[in-house]
Write a structure and sequence with these properties.
By secondary structure, this protein is of the alpha+beta class. The chain is built from nine helices and six strands, in the order E-H-E-E-H-H-E-H-H-H-H-H-E-E-H. Helix 1 links the parallel strand 1 and strand 2 (about 35-40). Helix 1 runs parallel beside helix 3, helix 4 (about 95-105) runs antiparallel to helix 5 (about 110-125) and helix 6 (about 135-145) crosses helix 7.
């Protein structure tokens, strides 16, 4: 089963969705699901080096504590999923283009390696408070996942990879993807948001059943 997921690496609900998906896959070990992580930049106009988070929040929302209540909810939810949200450690509002380039590059080593790097990037930002716009930070993330650090550095700003990311984001808009995370199962079914575990399991079971019955059985996105 092919599962394509549009998400961003600075979206806390994308981290929750990532964790929920891991739970669902663990509960369905007999169903082979190939996950592909696709880019969706929430703040593509940030400079490549990002911006001080406090300055960004004041400029964008006029309030550095705009999301404080939501962050408390996320910390409680994250704890139940094994996510240690440490919002106070995040001092930069990063441009996420390079982090998406790293994740795309990691995918060349296979879906499992891409999934690992995706999780490590999310943890670097949300738990460790590291600047995921910094090429050196991303290269360290790649090395921690067992990938070649120098090759990762080269991949971050490759023109062809930038073009690939832009094409995938244009595809998202053509498909009507307007928020993240969005999970697309075999291009038959899709849902957005960090849904409850039962929603993930229901989608996996339904699509797996259709695939087992053969061609001609499909739902609508």
């Amino acid at each position: 089963m092919k599962l394509e997921v549009y998400s961003d690496t600075i979206c806390p609900w994308c981290y929750v969705g990532f964790a929920r998906l891991q739970q669902a896959l663990a509960e369905r070990p007999g169903i082979e699901v190939e996950v592909g992580w696709l880019p969706f930049e929430l703040n593509p106009d940030l400079p490549p080096e990002g911006e001080d988070r406090r300055a960004y929040m004041l400029r964008r929302f006029g309030d550095v504590d705009r999301f404080a209540a939501g962050q408390q909810q996320l910390q409680e939810l994250g704890a139940s999923l094994g996510i240690d949200f440490q919002f106070g450690r995040v001092t930069r509002a990063p441009n996420t283009r390079r982090s998406h380039a790293l994740i795309r590059w990691a995918g060349e080593a296979g879906a499992a390696r891409q999934n690992e790097v995706k999780g490590r990037v999310l943890r670097a930002h949300f738990t460790e408070g590291r600047d995921i716009a910094d090429p050196q930070v991303l290269a360290d993330v790649a090395a921690d996942a067992g990938l070649d650090r120098d090759a990762a550095l080269r991949a971050l700003d490759e023109p062809a990879r930038r073009t690939e990311i832009e094409a995938l984001e244009a595809q998202a808009h053509r498909w009507g993807v307007s928020g993240v995370p969005t999970f697309i199962f075999e291009r038959r079914y899709a849902f957005s948001g960090a849904q409850p575990l039962e929603v993930f399991l229901g989608a996996i079971d339904q699509v797996a059943g259709e695939l087992a019955r053969g061609p001609g059985v499909a739902g609508a996105r």
